[in-house]
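Re: the 166-residue chain
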Amino acid sequence: MESRKTTQQAIARLNALEPTTTAARLRPLLPVIQERLDAGVRYADILKALAEEGLDVQLRVLQNALYAYKKSRQPAPPVEVPGMKEAVVAPQPTPSGMGTETPAGKSKPNESPNIAIGSPSQKSASPLTDAEFAAAMHPDPKENAAKMTEYEKIGKQLAMQRRVKK
């Protein structure tokens, strides 16, 4: 019974801790800051408002944080896997790296990767099947050897063409 009480006290104490790093205090404000910048508000005005609220941030720190925030919001480029008809789209990272934030402030786990069928612009929510995953991760050695031989021939032909052009 004593250890349960100690555990609950430790959890309560940890939950009461406030973020102390500049990055942790700035992170929840980034969507609003980006929205204001997009609306035409100057960096100087944003920095002044942050300083008035006790968050003294240098311009470069804010710009770097916004860059990381924007980069985390960009869709991942599709990854072409030889021998597969679909292009795998990597899951989206989140600023915290722990999941996406919900309005209640609780995080939910990252969703599974999307598959772009045909062109990268078309997205489907279905994950890879076990057979597709196995085919991508463990290609046929004979097929690989044949492809490697073909690539070596193409490489030699291109090298010969370059020599002839000189």
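The CA atoms of residues 157 and 163 lie 10 Å apart.
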